[in-house]
Amino acid sequence: MFKKIIYIICFLFFLSCNKTNYAKGTHNQITIISSKADKTYAYDSISDFFSKTVNTPYDEPVYELKWVDPYDEKGYLDYKNLFFLSLESPHDSTVDLINLKFKEKHKNDIFLIDDLYAKNQVALIFNVEDSSDMKFKLNYYKEWILDVYNNNIDKNIYKNLFYSGYNMEIEKEINEKFDIDALIQSDYKIIKNDSIDNNFLWIGRGYPYRWVTFIKTSLDIEKDLWVEYKRVVNEYMNNVHIVDYYNNISYDGDIVVKFEGLYEEDFSDTGGPFFSKLFRLNNNEILFISGYVNNPGKSKYLLLKELEVLIDNFKL
After folding, report:
1. In terms of domains, do 130 and 254 share one?
2. Using one digit for the tens of pLDDT, what is the confidence trace for 271-304?
3. Does residue 174 contact residue 202 with C-beta atoms inside 8 Å?
4. Domain tally for the chain?
5. Residue 248, beta-bridge partner list
6. Which of 79, 70, 217 is nearest to 152 (CA)?
7. The domain boundary residue, chosen from 160, 176, 205
8. Percentage of residues of the chain with pLDDT beyond 90
């Protein structure tokens, strides 16, 4: 048993010096490396920490958790988002020793290592005294920890967006209409284009179906922006209806910057989740850039996240 533990430790550190492959697995999977003993004490707190969901319209998890005991399982080192968890109490002889080797080198209890075993990978080393200390430090470092994983998820999604190339025709259309530098995947098509006043463009790809829309309209501070968004969607996309069953509005200070909600589509008699980013162009105009997903009966969150990463990299 002890010889196997020493072998595991040596193997882990050998691999950390020989990283040539790219990280694999689902973009939003968090791989938690923990002993069985520590998992017993940590499972509920870690599950709650990564419990955020998105309504699509059923609640889908933002993070997919996979628990790994290095003594029992192989092949986990190449995954994108690693979380090495060690509780000093109860004492065990697997992850405690692994994390101790990391700690001796980095001189901290909690720290981040980029590209530890593979490219485009993050590994968080998380050493705590016991379950109470773990809860305190999860809360204390919450924003930083989630930023670490969210940034790596976004980075890996973006790196995979354009494997089949770019659609320069649509990129040119977006630039001429809205003065936006945008990279668009090659399989997008123009669904509807307002050539009269240049205030609307609807592009999409399938299957699963994903749409990106651009709607420019006048900005009236007296109007409710959610109501105004529903109105302009109905004006330009009369087969699409924004529903009030669920909506989430994000603010930057007092300024609305993002809508999240659900839509229904007449022709297919289906619907799904959407989001819209709000950009104030000047004192009297606003641009809604929105992403819509249709994938009935199947997971939609990563498709929605892909659209958001795409739009977040537009340059206005």
Report:
1. no
2. 999 999 999 987 789 999 999 999 999 999 999 9
3. no
4. 2
5. 260
6. 79
7. 160
8. 71
